[in-house]
Amino acid sequence: METFSTRVTNYEMHNCIDFDKIIEINSGGSGVIYKYECKCCKITKALKRLRDGTQIQNFNSEVEILRIAQGHPNIITFYGVTKVRNADIKF
């Protein structure tokens, strides 16, 4: 099974208990996109939940593209990753 690239794992790991007001906004072949409010800073952010482990290579490519385009006003900022270990957490 694929793993996250070193470039992805070098970003901050976020705890999903810091997510508030989670709303699904879109879905596609690789995952589901949500918007949420970060409890610690009250900033609205987007969250992409991968459908399964087969999407990790595509995700690594997306993160590389975001890293290259970082700072452009029309490109989102990649803040980090989270991993849900508890099956009771649903979003």
Key words describing this protein structure:
91 residues; alpha+beta; 31% strand; globular; Prot_kinase_dom; Protein kinase domain-containing protein; Kinase-like_dom_sf; ATP binding
CATH architecture classification name: 2-Layer Sandwich
Query: End-to-end span in angstroms?
Result: 24 Å
CATH superfamily: Phosphorylase Kinase, domain 1
The CATH class, by name, is Alpha Beta
Q: Considering DSSP H and I runs of 4 or more, what fraction of the residues is helical?
A: 10-25%
Judging from the principal axes of the Cα atoms, what is the shape? Answer: globular
Query: What is the beta-strand fraction?
Result: 25-35%
Task: Give the strand order, joined by hyphens, for the main sheet.
Answer: 2-3-4
Helix and strand sequence: HEEEEHE
CATH topology: Phosphorylase Kinase, domain 1
Number of domains: 1
Give the structural class: alpha+beta
**Could you describe the largest sheet, including whether it forms a barrel?**
3 strands, antiparallel
Question: Rg to the nearest angstrom?
Answer: 13 Å
- Summed up, the helix count is 2
- Tell me the number of strands: 5
Average pLDDT: 75
GO molecular function: ATP binding; protein kinase activity
Organism: Gigaspora rosea
Protein name: Protein kinase domain-containing protein
Domain Protein kinase: 19-91
List the helices and strands and how they pair.
Layout (H helix, E strand, L loop, with lengths): L5 H4 L2 E2 L5 E9 L3 E8 L5 E7 L5 H14 L10 E2 L10
Parallel strand pairs: 1-5
Antiparallel strand pairs: 2-3, 3-4
Describe the structure.
- With 91 residues, the chain is α+β, with helices and mostly antiparallel strands.
- The protein has helices at residues 6-9, 56-69, and strands at 12-13, 19-27, 31-38, 44-50, 80-81.
- The strands form 2 sheets. The chain has a 3-stranded antiparallel β-sheet with strand order 2-3-4, with no helix packed on it. A two-stranded parallel ribbon has the order 1-5.
- A hairpin with a 3-residue loop joins strand 2 and strand 3 (31-38).
- It is globular, with a radius of gyration of 13 Å.
